[in-house]
Amino acid sequence: MGSVIDYFACPNCGQDAFSDFYYKTGEEYVHCSHCGYHHTAEIVNRNKPLNKLITEDWKFTTITNPYGAFKLRFKGDNAATCGSMRTEKEWNRYKAAVLSSEANNEIDHFSLSRYVDGVFHYFVYNGTDFLEVIESTDTQELSES
Length: 145
Ligand SMILES: [Zn+2]
Known about the structure:
Blueprint: E1 4-9, E2 16-22, E3 27-31, E4 38-43, E5 58-63, E6 68-74, E7 81-85, H1 88-99, E8 107-116, E9 119-125, E10 130-133, H2 139-144
Antiparallel strand pairs: 1-2, 2-3, 3-4, 4-5, 6-7, 6-8, 8-9, 9-10
The site of zinc ion (ZN) has 9 residues, from loops.
């Protein structure tokens, strides 16, 4: 299926967000891995020709004020699972489900990126807990300290 991949400034945090637009169907998948901003337009009823689709045949999901963006990859996998969390409760539930699963010792990377009041917070799982990692890309700040 043909799609156009594009990057644009995230309307929530201003970082690069990812857009995958399927021009043949009009379906779209938008995700920001920095803050969790998320938008999808997908066809849920595949039994009709495209020009016969009505609103009810589509599913639209938009998360404009997310709790954060997660990334999960298991050992041996090339691709990571990425997604958005709407609330802290949702994140805690997901985190608990992953960490209590049979595959929990196969976790290669598990992190959460949040954008709160203009500041990015990045949490990485170290095998026992999630630690906040400060990633400074501002060389000015580093040379002054
Ligand atoms: Zn964002």
